[in-house]
Amino acid sequence: MQNLSVYLVEKDTTALQLLKMYLKELDYIDIIGENETLEAAHSEIIKTTPDIVIANISDNINKNYEMTETILKRLPSVKIIAMAADYSTDTIIRAMRAGIREFLPKPIIKDNLLKSIDKFKNQILGDNTDENNSKVLTIFSNKGGVGKTSIAVNLALELANITKEKVALVDLNMHLGDVTTFLDIKPSFDISYLVKKIDSADEEFMLSTLEQYNNTGMYVLADPPYMEEAKKIQPNEIQKTINKLRTTFPYIIIDTNSTFDAITVTALDNSDLILLVSAINVPAVRNCQRCLDAFDRLGYEEEKTKIIVNRYMENDDIKIEDVEKAIDKPVYWRIPNNYYTITSAICKGKPVSVINNDSNIAKSYRELATNISDNIYRQSVIKKINRNPLAVLENLI
Predict the structure, then answer these.
(1) What was the pLDDT predicted at 391?
(2) Is the terminal CB of the chain with fewer CB neighbours within 10 Å at N or C?
């Protein structure tokens, strides 16, 4: 097996020696360098191009974030494991935004360190069989015309831009999909082609089959161009496709049709989060309540579904509080009504951030993507923070 090169950044000599001792348990690790700070190590990291950098960022943490961003601009494939004594929410989120994908609170627990190394090993060597780290978000409404495709397209792009991760945007509106129209693209392949190859598909195949959008981290899986092809696709093929997408894409955004058919329910069943879209009018709110009732009958946990109010205006006759009272559930997000920007985006086949990056609706999508990614990242490290005190003493750095 190919060895992985690791560079260590730690000024405490005792902690450094313990790190080395832990890493010796992994026979595929080569330690190729060490230094006391990221700033001092910067030029050597660029020169040696390690696979993984393990760095204590506790001191001068803001400067270390800057150095991390500088390193990743030059070496985007480098994986960084950050360690810090401060593991507050703000610290964790700031680390994620700097491009750090593994954050370990200090004192370090050995098992957490080795698990992080093993995770990166799978990613680097192309053996990433852990599907649990990928998150599937389905945008749904049982009422057409509420703007769920706009939300799916713009959220997917903003997630890719903010997280610097690969995001798959999947159009499961099999007969009337609009994702490619909203982005003005003509993909070479679509989901009807992918499902036929899904059993043998690897990461390289997935990345070449989905259409990368304008050199961003967003990849589009289009709906079938012909209804005859759409009718052949079975729910079990959709489930296998979602599972395969999980092995390549950290985020999967699914746009569905507005009916509870077998394909849509398969997507909903396999989602980590459902964004249920509503407008503020009586028919839309009633349909939203019916959806929540249906989700309850399907056995979904309450926290799996978040309510998105689209085309929100503060002077609406029906207030947010009225909606929340009617559906007995808080509204998670409000996307403002900006008719000119969204209409221009749809007509030109471009995301709203391209039409007007400073508009209130573009800002809302960015903040929504940030909020979702922050919560997901926070959940991913919570197990490392809720530590066993005895284990900390036994594995102390």
Answers:
(1) 45
(2) N
